[in-house]
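User: I'm putting together notes for a lab meeting next week and I want to include a structural view of one of the chains we've been expressing. I don't have a solved structure, so I'd like a prediction I can at least talk through. The sequence is below, exactly as it appears in our construct file.
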Amino acid sequence: MADDASQTPDNPGATSGPKKFGTFAGVYVPTLLTILGVIMYLRLGWVVGNAGILGGLIIVILAFGITAATGLAMSSFTTNIRIGAGGAYSIISQSLGLEVGGSVGLPLFLAQALAITLYIFGFREGWQFLFPDHPAIMIDLVAFGLIVAIAYKSAETAFRIQYVILGIVALSLVSVGIAAATGSMQYDLGQIQMWGTFPGEPPDFTGASFWLVFAVFFPAATGIMAGLNMSGDLKNPRKSIPIGTMAAIATALVIYVLLAIWIAASATPEELASNYTVMLDKAWLGDYFVLAGLLGATFSSGLASMVGAPRILQALGKHNVLPRSKWLSKRRADGEPQNAVLVTAVIAFLALMLRDLNAIAPLITMFFLITYMMINVVVFFEQTLDLVSFRPLLRIPRAVSFVGMVGCLFAMFIINPAFSLVALALVFGAYVFMARRSLDAPYGDVRSGMFISIAEWAAKRVWDLPQMQERAWKPNLMVAVKDPDELRGAFLFIKDLAYPKGSVKLVGIEPDGGRQDLAEQLDTLADDFRERAVFANWVVIESESLTTGLTAAMQTARGAFPRPNTVFLRMPEELDEKLNYKQIVDKAEEEELASLLFAPHKVTGLGRRRSVNIWIHDRSPNWGLSMNIGNLDLSLLLAYKLRRNWDATLRIIMAVEEEESVLKARNFLDDLLTIARIPDADVIVEHRSFSDMVSRAPQADLNIFGMDADPDLGFVRRMVNETRSSCIFVRDSGNESALA
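Assistant: Thanks for the context. Below is the predicted structure for the 740-residue chain, given as structure tokens.
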């Protein structure tokens, strides 16, 4: 983010390059003018008329309380980062990643662009109060043209015009003050209705409720991001955004409270509920000053959106979040995002031609609220993670961000539950779209810290639980690697054993030299596993032999998370005298790890991966079935996973020495498969010697055998040759259970 250097506190006084704005012009004025909008002029009286002065003040304070909590969270976070262009998008993406930031930023941009049209419609209604004969379409087009022309020229021009509008709004408030001083407040405290009857709204007055009135008023308290959207154009956003935003919220709250008290004492509840223009009627020369304020506020809000929305779009383009991002990210020499302004203007114009946005107006409010909620979520997560990187200059209690988060969600569903769900679905859809684009962020985020914290919490919880967790078993393989080429040959097989919920821990054994080269190859292979939805990590151990190195790895495995539970060995083509399989199996058993020896066939490999044979030894004369089934659990579990991942045929094969044991053996295997919940497996039991059975058994792509504590490598090679297939030899750890 080199081009943001002049926006940071490290360079607050930069004079070269695009025009930068201070706290008052860049944040306070646009934020205040956006909050002091059409609802203040045309709906505040209706709110008090329905809810009474006490209910009205509760609604105002509750709405501003949610907004203030969000403003504090936003302000706190901006003092912790070098915020770039894009405002809320920059905050969210720097914490939760470009995908989350983009999924919120894109709907936020659309909401800002569509809001331009809504403000123009509000401006037109005020204009037609003065000139009812003027055609609506002409008023809309002229207002739209002026707003676009001013925004396209420069943000500086827009802010200069907003000074004029601020003066007009101030005059409208002065006219209210003059009215109050000259006797408009004709009702004293005893005559003012404290709690309303909620008659509803004209013309039919079918009735309202407290929360319905709250839903109508709440959008008035939004608009706090007008200054935040200018983050990339501020001299010192870390200072200007907190001061300007919170000062604007405080000023607006005081104005709303005083206006509510004035209007309640100046008109009857019936007047307030039935007449949307009561403020114009009661203010001194209200038809001029208040109406001018209404026109100025709506025009200013539209202008602020026209200036702010393109900066969100330009920031999205800068980070390659959207198609044609390079074109969208371009700025003129004076810093104006000219292409983004044009796109925003086109969207606003098309919306203008629809002539009525009432159907989607609630959706626009939902997008704003989702953005506010996500800002609170970001701050709450950062506070909860307690990472050293989160050290904002403005610290707030965690309760503030939590209240803001819950309050925004509450407001969404109070205002419109259906549109809330639609908005959340659209944001989720945008996230899926962003995630598929493999976005490359120019800065780090806290997602890794968040997941590490969750993993640490889970690891601590697991540590306190009983060690025997057969029902939670999944294959977490510790794979010994001395030659990465051999691992590549077994890569897909290891993936099939671990997929979908297992993990792979690659343990590289390097005697001397070449450590860096082995680490790079293991890192690449681990990435390949993760791309195939199998979590993998790696470590390199300096050791003269695989036996010594793997033994050391097993000794430290108890502290790993996830902890490996199975040692995976590959039978080498030429035996290494230093490779002591018995020592490895003994150590694995001591550390409560299972052992798996993979012996691939030189010619057939794993064949078509369509059939698996499990070999079970003769159990005569004990054919009873209990939870302890001997060294069979891991064989059954791995065979079941391979059958699912390969869509393979599974056979259970046993050779019995006595003919009368055939039926007992078959019943035993049928019961075993039933209790183990492994249906559709073929059971083959014959009265033959084991060697004869091996030569006559159906061909399989993989054969699974049990393994003794002292592996007979001669037997291993013979089985590979006689079955004409790859084989695995397994020894349980005692922590697996195929019957659990």
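A couple of points you could mention at the meeting. The chain has three domains: 2-435, 473-593, 600-740. The radius of gyration is 36 Å.

User: Perfect, that's what I needed.
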